[in-house]
Amino acid sequence: MYETTGIGVEAAGLGKSYDDFWALRDVDLHVPAGSVLGLLGHNGAGKTTAIKILTTLASPTTGTARVAGYDVKTQGREVRSRIGVASQAATVDGLLTGRANLTLVGRLYGLSKTDARTRADELLERLDLVDAADKLVQAYSGGMRRRLDLAASIVARPAVLFLDEPTTGLDPRSRGDLWALLRELVDGGTTIVLTTQYLEEADRLADDIVVLDHGRVVAHGTPTDLKARVGGERAEVTVSGVADLAPAARALDGFADAPAVTDAEALTVTVPLRGGTRLMDIVRALDAGGVDAVDVARREATLDDVFLSLTTTSKPEAIAA
Amino acid sequence: MSQSLSADASIFARRNAAHIRQIPEKLIDVTLQPIMFVLLFAYVFGGVIDVPGSNYREYLIGGILVQSLAFGMMGPGTAIATDLREGVIERFRSLPVSRAAYLIGHLVSEVGASLIALTILTGSGLLVGWRPHEDVLHVAGGFGLLILFSITMIWIGTLLGLISRSADGVQGLIFMTIFPLTFLSNAFVPAEGLPAALETFSNYNPVSTVVSAVRTLFGNATATPDGAPWTLQHPVVSAVGSCLLLLAIVVPLTLARYRARTTD
């Protein structure tokens, strides 16, 4: 039915219902081997459900999925021996040392004692955990636990790696290190499926992005495609107070094809600009509308704009609270 | 890369043993605590507790053995509750490992811990003057019953670990159950000395039945009161029956609960 080589993840018509509620509906995925798929969506959009089905932890109500060439429903064990999973909570054993955690996971993947130890040493080195290797994990910081969790998920050199919000809670430096590591894995042929709440992360890492909303795919494409789809340039006006938001939106209305997006917390109003609009015209319109504008800027569309224009429930800050 | 269930189960069992090496306090409740009880009862309370037709130390050991093994439900209870809470069980589920391996690993390591406790306690019993007075077959039967009882307690602990929301909760629940059940039995004091209501409770308490059965098989005094219920008059068959009945109830419940907790 599918080619078993060259494809990391292939899903057709995937759906999951709990009683009457569809957590996931009619999802098709196609992730070539060695590429990165970013799953974006609000909390409850179905990202984690999709990951659970693809990692055999939940069974789909409808549809089929193959991971690393094997069917998730009928060949669970084959799938599990070829994947690595890092879930949102760092799933490591607090009462063992970091080294013992990695050796344990290696052994359970079927590595020999010697191989499991060698691999644990390699990963402790690679993820900068050598100093803490023989300390109990319960004494680790949150960032160290996450790194150990990631190490555990790549112990068996998985063909497909699933990461549920891998950098949540990491400081910027660790995040950069992690991105570099993921790039390295992809260069080595690993397929990665990741969910993230950082659109910048998806932009940086993903070859392809699937945006989920209420369990359905609402957009699919490369980051560049998606940004082009919501229009290129935007005007973003920052005002001095909440009262100025509505007048600013009205003033900008004349330059845009789509309604303005208002962010009451950041005190900004953003619109996609019609071609040929001049900055001066915007400033004049704001002045004529009596808007106390603190800043007026033109910028390229970001994935945040894509996200806001495609999904319906809440603001992007709430995606994965 | 797949391997057999027994290999995976033994990896899990060794993981649990490693926990004890890392946190030796985990073993205190099955080692030092019983020894403390032996010394406390043998030398402090022993002088004031009168056992008809026996000396107190001979009487005591059967009771301490049963109480310690009953506390053996603490190990699986807290360990499994912790695994569920910390989410490490999610990691295990994503590995190419049979789900049963995790549970079997726990049972194996907990039975191991109970055997260690049994050995330590038997040794300290011998030191304070306890002796079995029956032939080898009966004494072996006594240890066999203790092991059956211990396995029953471990299954109950496993079920509690799967039901509860936290390790502390399990610990509290077990203390609140095992202390009254063992102290309001014939484990430490003969029922005859108790007020009427407590004597009745002690006589019908299944812990009393198991303790009496162990004493009978070891040839130690049971001090069974006159007019005690049938179960206490025939303690060995009643104790074995109770353990098997409990297992018949608890094992299916535990397996169903485990399946429910590890399925989405």
From TrEMBL, chain A:
Its EC number is 3.6.3.-. It is found in: Cell membrane. Keywords: Antibiotic resistance, ATP-binding, Cell membrane, Hydrolase, Membrane, Nucleotide-binding, Translocase, Transport. InterPro entries: AAA+_ATPase, ABC_transporter-like_ATP-bd, ABC_transporter-like_CS, ABC_transporter_ATP-binding, DrrA, P-loop_NTPase. Residues 9-239 form the ABC transporter domain. One of its GO terms (cellular component) is plasma membrane. It comes from the Bacteria. Pfam families: ABC_tran (PF00005). It is a peripheral membrane protein. It is an enzyme of class 3 (hydrolase). The keyword Membrane applies. One of its GO terms (molecular function) is ATP binding. Belongs to the ABC transporter superfamily. Drug exporter-1 (DrugE1) (TC 3.A.1.105) family. PANTHER family: ABC TRANSPORTER ATP-BINDING PROTEIN, DOXORUBICIN RESISTANCE ATP-BINDING PROTEIN DRRA. This is Daunorubicin/doxorubicin resistance ATP-binding protein DrrA. It comes from Paraconexibacter sp. AEG42_29. The lineage of its organism: Bacteria, Bacillati, Actinomycetota, Thermoleophilia, Solirubrobacterales.
TrEMBL record, chain B:
One of its GO terms (cellular component) is ATP-binding cassette (ABC) transporter complex. Its main location: membrane. It is found in: Cell membrane; Membrane. It is a multi-pass membrane protein. InterPro entries: ABC2_TM (IPR013525), ABC2_TM_bact-type (IPR047817), ABC_2_transport (IPR000412), Nod_factor_ABC_transporter (IPR051784). The chain crosses the membrane at residues 30-49, 61-81, 102-130, 136-163, 170-189, 236-256. Keywords: Cell membrane, Membrane, Transmembrane, Transmembrane helix, Transport. Residues 25-261 form the ABC transmembrane type-2 domain. Signal peptide: none annotated. GO terms for molecular function: ABC-type transporter activity. It comes from the Bacteria. The keyword Disulfide bond does not apply. Belongs to the ABC-2 integral membrane protein family. This is Transport permease protein. It comes from Paraconexibacter sp. AEG42_29.
